Amino acid sequence: MIPVEHYLAFSLVLFVIGAAGALMRRNPIMILMSIAVMLTAANVNLIAFSRLWGTVHGQLFSLFIMADAAMETALGLGILVVCMRSRGARDSAESEFSKW
Amino acid sequence: MNPVSWPAAFVQARGDFVLLTPEMLLVLFGLLTLLLDLTLDDEQKSWNALPALLGLMLSGGALAMVGSSGKTTFAFGNAIAISPFSGYFGLLAIMLAALLILICTDEVAPVGQQSGERYALVLLATAGMLLLACANDLVVLFVAFETVSVSLYALASTGDADRGSRAGTLRFLLAGAFSTALLAYGFSLLYGLGGSTNLSAISARIAVLSQLSSSENFLLGMALAATGGGILLRIAGVPLHSRIPAIGESAPAAATAFISVAAKLACFTLLLRLLFSIFWRERYDWSILLIVAAVAAMAIGTLASLRQTNVKRLLAYSAIAQGGYVLLAIAASVNRDGSFNARGLGSAGYYLLAFVIFQLGAFAIAIVLRGRNVADDELQNLNGLLQKHPVAGGAMIFVLLSCVGVPPTAGFVAKLEVVRVLFANQHAALAWIAVLFAIPPIYPSFRIVRAIWRDAAEAPERMPISDLQVVALAPMVILTLLLGVFPAPFEHFAARSLAVLAFR
Amino acid sequence: MAGSRLLFDFFAAIAAASALAMVTRRNIFPGAVFLLATLLATGGIVLQLQAEYAFAAQLLLFVGGIVLLFVLAVMLLIPDALHQPARFNWRMFASSALVLVVAIEILAFFWARHDAMLWPSVAAMPTNNTGAMGDVLFRDDFPAFEFASISLLATIVGVVMLAKRRTE
User: Fold this and answer.
1) Which end of chain B, N or C, is less surrounded by CB atoms within 10 Å?
2) What is the pLDDT of residues B27-79, one digit of tens each?
3) Closest partner residue to A79 among B138, B173, B187, by Cβ?
4) What is the ipTM of this complex?
């Protein structure tokens, strides 16, 4: 196995990219995608550690994280679609969600 | 891992299932509520409260029975730990849900038509909170926390679709998802350090690590930063495109009430669970982290609430400030010399108890404002409430006093206790900050009280307060008074329950 | 072994580059495509770590579910999704670069002070991956399994409520 630090480094980079995207982008779809990347980074960590320790708990945890990502994405996109539909396509999605 | 034959595995697990009865009951009755809702006509929708309340009562009873031994019981291969801690927070969660459903009955259409789904979501969220309190494993913690979160997102998105923007709800979801991702990353690091997802196992391994390499300490620090950051962001409401008060635009008052309290309760449960077991080695670090977050929360919540005229947002912001007090209390449970201070934790637990009661009571004011139009949340619609409904108006004023922290209410005692613990711990500066931040909330509350007190001639048309809602206010008033006048037994109970955390 | 190392580097590079590309796109649809690339590359890494079930789940859930949802949402919201103001966001670029610099610093610290970590020597994985996961899932993490389905139920309720037409 490749030394685990490499996996840690890779997942950190991925996590940071996702976090930057989630913080800096204003379009909610893009934010959700960035959060998915962050969660994927956590998954990579888990699976790498799972391989290291020889147990499957990490892989199982990653399954639940995936399920959670799906749930949040589904709800978030659902709310977005309903929101946009009732408002019409007058403005771009960014203007509404850029307020604090 | 050797596979176990299935029949043997089930027999082994059967005893464990009994320990999860409270959660299972809540889920069962949540489903029943959903099903029952299908059979009801529009006018009968308030009957939905019946299975929900029944489920809550039964679950509370089961919780008392399960936790009655007073010792810590492990189940499911140590993934579940039933202890006084889980009993205490389970009790808080059930109380929260029960009070909310009592206030909510008789909601007017069209919102009342969704009551079946709403109550079901409330019950599911409560089940998640119960599981969160008794979880001893990272996976179970995560899933329970997400059950609560997702139920709250779903709850926030019920509501009248004709109301303009749901942007607030979406922002709440995005901020929640972001902090969950942080949390997940922190958990993954903890798993890597500990070699297992079980909290006890991880704590044991980390204790061994104390003499060892700096890289591992660094990883632990990163795990603390990620996990703590994820949780504290949710509590402190630091703007990440969102704050919970933003939901107030599109979600009905009852949903906002539940969400603002339940989200905090879940976060505190998780925080307490982790800080005193795994991260105990880093307690100096996280004390500081908590203090910073506490001051931020109090500052944001207090300052933002001063300018609000929308009652829901005002209360939601003040909830953030209250969260700051609890954070201070938790920080105070670590003495200067590093030992564990049970009184600090006890004051945190007591504050949460008082918080659940008076926050919901205060939101009852907002719920009463329900008209057919969400614009009715403005302050001036409260005018003349005291004259028309003296009992309800008086009860609300009393609960509001507790929110602010005026004697002899529970809120006052809670704040006083936190300040006292801080002084006792030689955190004098923090104690003065806590006292300082207790003063500004008086102003917006005074505005609310004044509005209620005003002459009825200025009052606009409003829906009447049902008797049931008045009945719902009664336990809140009684509890507030009781906790305010006789705080000692409750404080002892809280301290005893939470002290279990120290011996994980 | 050099081959597996090379494979990891390849996948990691693709994943990181795709993620970076994703967060810097102006239009969302290319962003979704890059998300797909990131997830696939990460799946490759997962598979290399002998986590077959997780790999399959990644493909089915993440790629087949979540990316699909994104694409669907993008298509439903096409006027909004593609109508992006044509300006380059220097602030975003600068802050992303800053964040990456911080991350690299953390990594540098990490490597520079690399004492012998107390990682165990790499243990043997159970040969039947799916079976082993089933063991843990249905025994130790059983409450998690059940409550995952409950949270899914909550999601469904929420989404159905969103979709229901108001009769008012």
Assistant:
1) N
2) 999 999 888 888 877 666 667 778 888 888 888 888 888 876 666 777 777 78
3) B173
4) 0.92
